[in-house]
Every structure is written in structure tokens, then in C-alpha cells.
Amino acid sequence: MELSKHHIKTILEKLQDVYPLMLESEGYRELTEELGSDVILDAHLLYLWEKGIIDTEMKYDPYTPGWTVSAHLTRINASGIDLLVDRKS
Predict the structure, then answer these.
(1) pLDDT tens digit string along 28-42?
(2) pTM of the model
(3) Structural domain boundaries in the chain
(4) Does the domain made of 5-88 have the CATH classification 3.40.50.300?
């Protein structure tokens, strides 16, 4: 899957809006609707998590197959906020 810079920006801005709180289920649903599917959102969250830009808990389920994201443990971290600030400067 090709990742979208627009989607990454959308996710980070949403997480910054609720910082220092977690994304929670409602925020996850909103992002899923905005991005078009939970598969697209999960792929982008996985990328951001692997880059160390967000904190979350993700587990791969080989039976689905796919990733399970704990929205109640998902938040932007200092590196993610710095990235947004640097892009706006």
C-alpha cells in the first residue's frame, strides 16, 4: 500500500488536537471515515508508530489478517508535535 502524506498530516493534526489525551474510539471512527477505511488508517498508524512519531499499541492478527490498534492508547508524542511545528515554520 502506498502511504499518503495528506493522510499522515490529517492523522497527526487529529492527534495534536486531542493532545495530551489519547485518540479513543470516537477519534478512531472519525479518522476512519475521513481516510476511507480502517485498513488505510491502520497502515498509516503502523508507519507513524514504527517511525516513533506516535505512541500506541498495535498487534498483528494472522487470522484476520490485519493489525489491531488500541485507540485508547494512541497519542502523538513529542517527536510528532515537533514534526508538525517544523512543517508549519
Answers:
(1) 999 999 999 999 999
(2) 0.93
(3) 5-88
(4) no
Question: Up-side HSE of residue 4: CA atoms within 13 Å toward CB?
Answer: 11
- DSSP assignment of the chain: ----HHHHHHHHHHHHHHTTS--HHHHHHHHHHHHS-HHHHHHHHHHHHHTTSEE--EEEETTTTEEEE-GGG-EE-HHHHHHHHHHH-
* Residue 67 CA neighbour count, 13 Å, CB half: 17
77 touches 53 (CB < 8 A):
yes
Phi, psi of 20 (to 5 degrees): -95, 15
